Every structure is written in structure tokens, then in C-alpha cells.
Amino acid sequence: MKKIVLASNNKHKIKEFKEMLNDVEILTLNDIGFYEDIEETGTTFFENAMIKASTVSKYLKNKKLYYDVLSDDSGLCCVGLNGEPGVYSARYSGVHGDSKANRKKLIKNLKAKDKTAYFICNIVLYRVDGTYDYSEGRTYGKIIDEELGDTSFGYDCIFLSDDLNKTFGEATEEEKNSVSHRYRALLEIKEKIK
Hints:
alpha/beta
């Protein structure tokens, strides 16, 4: 079975990738002994995915490990806020990973504005030889004012999916994975992994 490094230690993301790429052995950053913080200084999802992928690939080469690296950057974009929170989705409220505060700020900023939104995911497959492939996936919906379903992950409980007609917080993992931005981006790049 082919081994590939996923440039992440995010348990939720790792689980999603493993479920969707079940014919590939996924190694995490912990598995390869990578414990540095990678600064995501890009202004686009693609740039941030490339920064992560190339940084991890360089680390692997220094360790004489030759695996391709899969990296993604994703977030929520709202039409009424000209694409906010965008690349700042995880730290929209000023504190990285404070989902409750991020949702609260978003709902407040969207008052009386167009609530159409989409999740976007950019995935980079960075090969040992320095070449790469890239894909993008999107899933559309709208932001609602109340939290419905599981509130433990990002904006899921306030994102009403056009495909599912329920929030991602109310959806089962299988339902969400079948329409998610990450799934759509992975579908496109899956063939290139082999």
C-alpha cells in the first residue's frame, strides 16, 4: 500500500482523509516526528497549502525519507462579507481555533447581509521530485443565526448545506463527507496519488 504524509495533526482532518483515501496509508506529522509550527503566511488557500506541503517535504528529504506530501488549506467564505473569513477562518475572532467565538463574530458581522456562503478546500499533492498537483473543492450553503447539531467543529453547526438541507453539524459524517469541499477536492486529486 502506498504511503503518503498528510501535513496535519488535526484529528478531525486526519480522520476525514483516512476515510476518503482508504486505499492509501496516511502518515501524520506525529508519525514522521515533525513537531514544528508551520506559519501560514499565504494570502490564499493555495499558497498556505503549498507552504505546508513544501515545508514538510523539505523536512522529509533532510531525514532521508521519500514520501509524497498531501496538504490542504480550507475555510469558509461569505458572499455578504466579500469572502470573509476566508484564510482567517480558524482565527477569525483573533484566537486560533476558538470556534464558538468565530461563529459569534460571523453571525454578528452578517446581520442584514447576504448569508450565502461556501466552504472551500485547496489540496496540494507535493511529490518527492518537487512537482505538484493541485485541486479545489467547494460546497455551498448559507449561514444561519442559530447553532444546530454538533457544535464541536468550526462553522459546521451554522452552515446550512444546499446539498443536504441541514447544517453540517446535524449531518452524519457520511452525509457531510459525501458533499464536503474536502471530499470534492480529494476526488479530483485521488487519481494522481496513485
